[in-house]
Structure formats: C-alpha cells, structure tokens
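Request:
Um, any thoughts?
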Amino acid sequence: MKELDSKEFIEEIENGSGLCLVDFNASWCGPCKMQKPILEELEDKFNIYGLDVDKAKDIASKYNVNAVPSLMIFKDGVLKQTLVGFQAKDVLEEALSKYL
C-alpha cells in the first residue's frame, strides 16, 4: 500500500482518474493497525493508498477527518463515500464495487 504525502495526494487522488480507496490513518491508532492487513488483501483488486493524518494535516482538515481510520473512496478525483472506523473486508469490497 503506497503511503502518500500531501503533494502526492493532490497529484494521484484529486487530479487522478479511476477508482481508489484512501486510508486516512495514524501511526498511534490501534484500529488503523488492524485495518492495514485487510487493505493489503484488497490491493490485488483495487487501488489502495494510505495517508498519515499527522503528516498531512492539510489534507485531513480539507476532508474533515475527525476519526481514524477514515476510509474514503474516490472516483476520478471526486470523493464518493466515507467509512469511519474499522471495516471488514466484505464491507470494503461491496462499497468499492458499487463504483466500478
């Protein structure tokens, strides 16, 4: 899972095309650590990125991230759906599949 900084987020997500999921996370967050292996399992089907909210406060603020993990689905640079808190693999697959 590629970790993005603020500049990369703008280039790859906001100015990008296609479908992706961005995991807004923090290194100190227990549920974020539990979420990561599930996201890695989905990488063979979907574009998955990570963004550390402590290192990219500007992006976290722009998208009103108040809790981590916050999982945001983007399509062609547009935010389509936000899931807050730990999510099961099947929930994420179903959410992403809606936008294919």
Notes: The first strand starts at residue 2 and ends at 4. Residues 2-97 form a domain with the Glutaredoxin fold (CATH 3.40.30.10).
